[in-house]
Specification:
This protein is mainly alpha-helical. Helix content is 81%, strand content 0%. 8% of the residues are buried. The mean pLDDT is 79.
Length: 73
């Protein structure tokens, strides 16, 4: 009886999903892209101006914020 419950516990341990790491990696990539795009959009905003560069800077800042507040990390 004890051996059977140990085998069942081992099966449950191996059956756990590991998707949290993949989600954390995706938000890390999102944050890195935000860190790359944000300075480029600020340079574009300074040189050419316009609402497109401002929106791009805002989206990049939002991506960095989401990666920083990542609940899966």
């Amino acid at each position: 009886m004890l051996a059977r419950s140990a085998a069942q516990a081992a099966k449950k341990h191996w059956a756990k999903p590991t998707q949290a790491e993949e989600v954390g990696l995706g938000t890390t990539v999102l944050g890195v892209l935000g860190l790359v795009v944000f300075p480029l959009s600020l340079i574009g905003l300074l040189i050419w101006g316009g609402p497109v560069w401002a929106v791009l800077a805002g989206l990049a800042a939002l991506a960095v914020l989401i990666a920083w507040l990542d609940p899966f990390a």
